[in-house]
Amino acid sequence: MVMRRFSRLAMHLLSLALSTSTAIAQTRCEVQGEVAHWMYDACMFDSGTDDGLAPEVEACIARAERALHRFKPCTKKRILKERVCRKAVGQVSKDVRYCMQDPGMKGPTVRNGGL
């Protein structure tokens, strides 16, 4: 009887631990950095400038914010990284899939933690 209670308690605790670790894993994002930094890098890349305050970059940021407002942060970062990767193919990456999987593929704003 005591053993059966212990077994049920152990199973309950194991189940709780597994569900907690799954929830934690789902909140992590494979694309590191802040959404705003990815927006700046994507927009500077699109505009062909390294000036984050350039009018065309600011206009691009405003468009990106409107287009991405309904997505969760990780999805926004994936979309923005893919945009950067599509531009980078042939320059610094061999293909989009490889670029997306490369944790080192970041623009300077993401890498430096800001402009």
Rg from alpha-carbon coordinates: 21 Å
> Unreliable segments (pLDDT under 50, ≥5 consecutive)?
9-14, 18-26
Q: Give the end-to-end Cα distance, rounded to a whole number of Å.
A: 64 Å
**Average pLDDT figure:** 81
What can be said about the biggest beta sheet? none
> Helix count, per DSSP?
6
Shape: globular
Query: Order of helices and strands, N to C?
Result: HHHHHH
Q: How many strands in all?
A: 0
Proportion of beta-strand residues: under 5%
**Proportion of helical residues:** 55-70%
**Helix/strand/pairing category:** mainly alpha
Structure description:
- This protein is an all-alpha fold and 115 residues long.
- The protein is built from six helices and no strands.
- It has helices at residues 2-27, 35-47, 55-68, 73-88, 96-101, 108-112.
- It is globular, with a radius of gyration of 21 Å.
- Residues 9-14 and 18-26 have low confidence and may be disordered.
Give the SSE map.
Blueprint: H1 2-27, H2 35-47, H3 55-68, H4 73-88, H5 96-101, H6 108-112
Helix pairs in contact: 2-3, 2-4
Briefly summarize what is shown.
By secondary structure, the protein is mostly helical.
Q: What features would you highlight for this structure?
A:
globular, mainly alpha, 115 residues
